């Protein structure tokens, strides 16, 4: 896959499923959210099938596989269960993420440098499906170099530290960390995506970083959709990203 000449928006629909799972109902359906997101301009749909199944379920992924017009970015932990499931659905994109059951959300990047042989084997196995494999990592040169060494064509830089930064100084520091990571990743010949914790008030600075291929955004979109509807929430985010990335 080549890098797109405009910044892409991957819409993560996990937290539509969070609301459904809170009551064990049939609604709201993340599959409907995915189709609405596509109509509103999403370039792809991201789902994270967690080991604890707290939001997305196998049923969602299987239906999405049949109905998406764009492409699925399937986020998964590096476990045999998930590898086997990915082999069943053969998603266009697979993003390997770190996962622990107790965490509130994905709290850091995958430690590729610390487990190169294991990640390399996973990347090789998943690449045989024809999937483009990316690694969800911190913007850290050691992890970026290791990602290249294990043969992943793409990385997604974790923007959570930027999103959580409190003071203007911390925000600037974390933004620079992301921008440096993007430049370093591109220099390594990688496709560079980014995401986590991005919302309507912090996305523009990240979207202004040259060279990012795609931003994956979920929680803030679902939250805003409560007030404006899912299509409008996606369209607003897409407009912000495109305007900021053109400057
Ligand atoms: C890997 C990633 O950043 C997303 O999949 C995110 O983790 C989804 O939300 P939760 O972490 O709340 O499951
Ligand atoms: N990989 C990041 C993602 O898919 C969305 O994360 P968030 O916007 O829900 O924090």
From TrEMBL:
It is found in: Cytoplasm. Gene3D superfamilies: Aldolase class I (3.20.20.70). Homooctamer; tetramer of dimers. It catalyses: 3-amino-2-oxopropyl phosphate + 1-deoxy-D-xylulose 5-phosphate = pyridoxine 5'-phosphate + phosphate + 2 H2O + H(+). 1-deoxy-D-xylulose 5-phosphate binds at residues 14-15, 50, 55, 105. One of its GO terms (biological process) is pyridoxine biosynthetic process. It comes from the Bacteria. The gene is pdxJ. Its EC number is 2.6.99.2. This is Pyridoxine 5'-phosphate synthase. Catalyzes the complicated ring closure reaction between the two acyclic compounds 1-deoxy-D-xylulose-5-phosphate (DXP) and 3-amino-2-oxopropyl phosphate (1-amino-acetone-3-phosphate or AAP) to form pyridoxine 5'-phosphate (PNP) and inorganic phosphate. One of its GO terms (cellular component) is cytosol. GO terms for molecular function: pyridoxine 5'-phosphate synthase activity. 3-amino-2-oxopropyl phosphate binds at residues 12, 23, 197, 218-219. The record marks 156 as: Transition state stabilizer.
